[in-house]
Automatic annotation (TrEMBL):
GO terms for cellular component: ESCRT I complex; late endosome membrane. It is found in: Late endosome membrane. It comes from Chelonia mydas (Green sea-turtle). The lineage of its organism: Eukaryota, Metazoa, Chordata, Craniata, Vertebrata. It comes from the Eukaryota. GO terms for biological process: protein targeting to membrane; protein targeting to vacuole; ubiquitin-dependent protein catabolic process via the multivesicular body sorting pathway. Belongs to the VPS37 family. This is Vacuolar protein sorting-associated protein 37A.
């Protein structure tokens, strides 16, 4: 029996799969490459940062609710870093604590954190409003169910009376 019996005219028939097909093992090459440092620090500072990252050229992102968020402008060059010498920049690159401190003190990141906190507050307020409306919604839902049940009963009564009327009109 073919797996798709609907017979869609725009799709070719699906070929049956082989049941006794063997899977060849592929040798895995051992890599001599080791890293002294992980790709990203794992001690919590980076993971606690907000995640609004622009994915397109347009930095104006529109959410499902129609509201939009504009990412803070990021300059091409940071004046604080331009003043540092090459050895200082190299040290900063090698010492993640100093680099993260510089990163956390950026005004753009501070703005994103403030925006995130505001968004969290508004989401919490909306959730509280939704919870307050839940009893009313449940009462209205029950009313609709009761009316549907009443409608079903009335329809059954109507059909019985129509059947009776039909029987009487035939006699």
């Amino acid at each position: 029996m073919p797996p798709y019996t609907q017979g869609f005219p725009f799709l070719p028939p699906y070929p049956p799969q082989e049941t006794n097909r063997s899977i060849a093992s592929v040798p895995v090459a051992e890599s001599g490459y080791t890293t002294d440092k992980p790709a990203a620090p794992s001690y919590g500072l980076i993971t606690d940062l907000p995640l609004p990252v622009p994915t397109t050229e347009a930095l104006l992102q529109v959410g499902q609710n129609g509201l939009s968020y504009k990412m803070p402008d990021v300059p091409d060059a940071f004046p604080e870093l331009s003043e540092l010498s090459i050895p200082q920049l190299t040290d900063m690159n090698e010492q993640e604590d100093i680099l993260l401190e510089q990163f956390v003190n950026l005004p753009q990141l501070k703005q994103i954190i403030v925006d995130k906190d505001d968004l969290v507050k508004s989401i919490e307020e909306l959730a509280k409003k939704n919870l307050l409306l839940e009893p009313s919604l449940e009462a209205k839902r029950q009313t609709v169910l009761d009316k549907y049940e009443h409608l079903t009963q009335m329809k059954a009564t109507f059909e019985k009376k129509m059947q009776r009327q039909h029987e009487l009109s035939e006699v």
